[in-house]
Amino acid sequence: MDHFALTNGVLHAENVPLPAIAEAVGTPVYVYSRATLERHAQVFSQAVAGLGKDGTPLIAFAVKSNPNLAVLKVLQRQGFGADVVSGGELRRALAAGMAPGKIVFSGVGKTRAELELGLSEGIGQFNIESLEEGRELAEVAHSLGITAQAALRINPDVDAGTHDKISTGKADNKFGVPLVRAGEAFAELAGLPGLNLRGVALHIGSQLLDLTPLETAFAKIGALVGELRAAGHVITHVDLGGGLGVPYQPHEEPPSPADYGAMVARVTEGWDVHLTFEPGRVIAGNAGVLLTRVVRVKRGVRDPFVIVDAAMNDLARPALYGAYHGFAAVEPTGADMTANVVGPICETGDTFAMGRECDALSAGDLAVFRTAGAYGATMASSYNSRGFVAEVLVDDEKFAVVADRIDAGAIMDAERVPEWLA
Ligand code: LLP
Question: Domain spanning 4-32+285-413: which superfamily?
Fold first, then answer.
């Protein structure tokens, strides 16, 4: 459920009509709904409440899905921590007031500087992704006189059944340590000074529309926990990652957070560990739209091209993954059309939809791409010397610009021609 709906024929975000935002901020612009973010946070929290050792699992929002400071602040106020994958994300989580102890640091390529940053900020857990990283973390922590809290990310070799580019738990993906080598890695790392290797982590992929692969992977992790304990290791923490999908298309019916929670309860029964979850998309996806204006409608050979002022640099998912985003008029007339929806960028990949049945639109009309709150603005670029898109947060009847538009001129200001070329 989200808070983007028609009132008197005009699409609103909560109680703000979208034309008011277009008027004030211009287009394209991402619009987020605070009430939707909060609702999703609460539904997820309720779904996992009571799970794990003390019944208070850590929900670490996957910052990569929407790193906007205001969005992080909304979630921080809901008690969320953060799953970060870079020093930049770590700084954002801290700036949003997230407790360092509620931050987990994932990622295959953490640099020494990032390990040091995490250690000096006292983050809750490093999810280390290789033996090599574990050795380095132990060494850095030991030299700083600190003990790093860590879990070993396991690659369970499970096909998540999602798009190849967002699948992370197959043997040939770069993530984690293969299940069969987990014992070896623990044997070496658990004894190192500077490291408290207290658990395991996994994340098999994103936009999962079926719980089966997650359940299969979690069961493997449960068995591993037993084996590690039998080998004398103390396992107190398991991080089950993120991955729950959202409905991008009307026919998609992803499992609900409640179904997910019930599955986790069943599989983790008796594990006796503190649990962490890293949801991203399921929290932020439906909490945002990309508001755009039709530049013009061009006659095509078959269907017309609706050319909008948003492009693949603002919303990359269709170009990168062939992803579907709902597309609708802000002030629908009731008439329909079949259209090719494209941006202004000079490559054919800048296509949001081909042959899409949608509301009839003309030049100057406003429209939205739905379900753009996750992996939207955060993946923007300045390709074709377009600026970085602005972001707005709505709260009931008010709204605020929570990320300025960075125009192409400001980006150019950061460049220079060397003297010897002038
Ligand atoms: N934890 C880890 C370690 C991750 O790598 C990810 C996402 C998550 C949690 C959050 O997963 P979620 O709950 O959002 O599915 N750009 C792609 C998605 C990439 C996801 C990468 N990892 C897209 O637009 O679909």
Answer: Lyase, Ornithine Decarboxylase; Chain A, domain 1 (2.40.37.10)
Specify the CATH number for 34-281; select among 3.30.420.40, 3.20.20.10, 3.50.50.60, 3.30.10.20.
3.20.20.10
State the chain's mean pLDDT as an integer.
97
**13 DSSP β-pair partners:** 4, 16
Q: What is the pLDDT of residue 80?
A: 98
60 lines ligand 1 (CB under 6 A): no
What is the distance between the alpha carbons of residues 217 and 310, in angstroms, rounded to a whole number?
A: 38
Overall average pLDDT of the 332-359 stretch? 98
Angle at 382 between CA 289 and CA 294, to 5 degrees: 45
Task: Give pTM, 2 decimals.
Answer: 0.97
Q: Ligand 1 centroid to 244 CA: how many Å?
A: 9
Rounded distance from Cα 168 to ligand 1 centre (Å): 9
CB of 106 sitting under 6 A from ligand 1: yes
- Read off the pLDDT of residues 79-124 as tens digits, 9 standing for 90 and up: 999 999 999 999 999 999 999 999 999 999 999 999 999 999 999 9
Digit-coded pLDDT (tens) for 139-188: 999 999 999 999 999 999 888 888 888 778 887 888 899 999 999 999 99
CB 239 less than 6 A from any atom of ligand 1:
no
Q: Closest ligand 1 atom, CA of 207?
A: 15
Question: Is 346 in the active site?
Answer: yes
363 vs 392: CA distance, rounded Å: 24
